[in-house]
Amino acid sequence: MASLYWYRLMASLSKINVSLLLFVIFFFSTHDSTMVEAKYRTSSKNLTNKVSALIVFGDSYFDTGNNNDFFSIAKSNHKPYGIDFPFQIPTGRFSNGVNLADIIASYLGVTEFVPAYLDKTKDLQTLMAGVNFASAGSGYDQLSGQQSNAILIQKQFEYFKEYKTKLELSMGQIGTQLHLENAVFLINYGTNDIVTTYFYGHRKKQFTIEGYLQFLLQNAMNFFQGLFDLGARRIVVAGLLPTGCTPVLGRSNSVLKKPCLLNLYSNLSSDFNKKLQDGINSMQLEFLKYNGIIVYADLFLPMSDITQNPMKYGYEFTDIACCGLGFTDVGLFCNFLSKICTDRSQFVYFDNFHPTQKTYQILFNAIRGVIDLMIPT
Ligand SMILES: *[C@@H]1O[C@H](CO)[C@@H](O)[C@H](O)[C@H]1NC(C)=O
Ligand SMILES: *[C@@H]1O[C@H](CO)[C@@H](O)[C@H](O)[C@H]1NC(C)=O
């Protein structure tokens, strides 16, 4: 069973980076197999255990309600958000229904709706199967969270440490260690940094764009390392979508008459994704040594395909959103005054920045293979 797990891991890595695959093969072929076996025996990880929890960090693509109880323009706990959620409840998800974090949690079989850490109605028992620290507006750059009054990435990390302490009180140190080893960590930041903070914050004066992407990458790597140091062993980092194709940016860029996939914002997202992949690959070996894995999940290509071939997926509209129907309604500005479409399945985007539930589902289908790597066989 273990070897199948390694095989799948390596098969997937080969798609990411052939030279790394060769290195991994070299690494294992030069270490005799009894050593690898011994590693399993001394490891506290029971490979037949399934995933214990989904633990989420990020921005509005993953937020499930952490911004609900304080002032921020990045809020979605009001209509028409949640119009296709059970009982039509606007929960703080930037979607007409569930988002990608929920879909992944359901697939892993841990929980159907990933609870926001700051949701006071959820007890520790509930948060054990899944917990979400994501906050709309935040980024790898703390300035992003500051500008939109979101929970900064560092604060999300502090909340995770607090969560870990609560787990330790409840299940002990060893129990917590096992729990975290068997948990899947899901991370996605970067969009706010690239589309707003760099251009509209002070960062443009401080960094060249290349320097800024490098700065984001460094923050990202520090963050992954921080989670690893606290016991995370299975990490999925989602890449950026082609942000230039979001209705709000696609329209404002259309004067340039460039396809949205090739405008400035999409190019920067794609550039950052490449750096992120390289960064993740460079950490892989350290994870492997501890029976861990960190992978990059690409959302850019599947979203590009949706954008270029909407009919294939039954979409009618790619450049206008369901909420607002042609204006810039997002967050507080997508509200009861907004026009709203009747058939959500025809729209790639629900508000002018965030996908519909249907789109999240299609994106999930595209990364399922990567998520499967998180499930021990
Ligand atoms: C591993 O976990 C499974 C399921 O929880 C259990 O049945 C099995 O006995 C465990 N094996 C070891 C060696 O602890
Ligand atoms: C984006 O990249 C493509 C090729 O990679 C290039 O043709 C295009 O001009 C770029 N767009 C901008 C706005 O720089």
Secondary-structure map with pairings?
Blueprint: H1 2-16, H2 18-29, H3 33-42, E1 53-58, H4 100-108, H5 124-127, E2 130-132, H6 142-148, H7 153-181, E3 183-188, H8 191-200, H9 203-206, H10 209-229, E4 234-238, H11 247-253, H12 264-289, E5 293-297, H13 300-308, H14 357-372
Parallel strand pairs: 1-2, 1-3, 3-4, 4-5
Helix pairs in contact: 1-2, 4-14, 10-12
The chain binds 2-acetamido-2-deoxy-beta-D-glucopyranose (NAG) (2 copies).
One 2-acetamido-2-deoxy-beta-D-glucopyranose binds next to loops.
What does it look like?
- With 377 residues, the chain is an alpha/beta fold.
- It has one domain: 3-Layer(aba) Sandwich (Rossmann fold), CATH 3.40.50.1110.
- The protein is 47% helix and 7% strand.
- The chain contains 14 helices and 5 strands.
- A 5-stranded parallel beta sheet has the order 2-1-3-4-5, sandwiched between helices.
- Helix 1 runs antiparallel to helix 2, helix 4 crosses helix 14 and helix 10 runs parallel beside helix 12.
- The radius of gyration is 20 Å and the shape is globular.
- The termini are close together.
- The N terminus is likely disordered.
- The protein binds 2-acetamido-2-deoxy-beta-D-glucopyranose (2 copies).
- One 2-acetamido-2-deoxy-beta-D-glucopyranose binds next to loops.
